[in-house]
Specification:
The protein has a 6-stranded antiparallel barrel. The protein has 113 residues and is mainly beta. It has 1 helix and 6 strands; from the N terminus they run βββαβββ.
């Protein structure tokens, strides 16, 4: 791996979507802590959109994190990333060059302006 270890300074929380039963047996979905990791920001893009007189901003980021067996089992539907207290939906996960050294996680956040 040729990455500088100092790049991995951003604190990320990875959460997993879970379903628990309440006292009357209903399934309630919620997010629970999966892992705390340090990552590098690989790229950052932003855009503003207007639809039906509502403005929104969309931020897309790509993080690089060190590969681990647990992280390699993540998928785009059941996991999300919390960065600086804000939730980001995972849109793509890639094991770079399939070498089991670094994962590239692309995330997106949409917010109303």
């Amino acid at each position: 791996m040729t990455d500088n270890i100092g790049q991995y300074r951003h604190k990320l929380i990875i959460e997993k979507l879970t379903a628990d039963g309440n006292e009357i047996g209903d399934q309630i979905e919620g997010w629970s802590l999966f892992r705390k990791v340090h990552g590098a920001i690989d790229s950052l893009h932003g855009a503003e959109k207007t639809a039906d007189a509502q403005e929104s901003t969309e931020t897309e980021m790509t993080f690089k994190v060190r590969w681990s067996r647990a992280l390699s089992e993540m998928n785009e539907q059941d996991y999300r990333v919390i960065y600086k207290g804000e939730p980001y939906d995972i849109t793509f996960i890639e094991d770079i060059k399939l070498r089991h050294e670094v994962l590239r996680i692309t995330v997106k956040r949409q917010s109303e302006v």
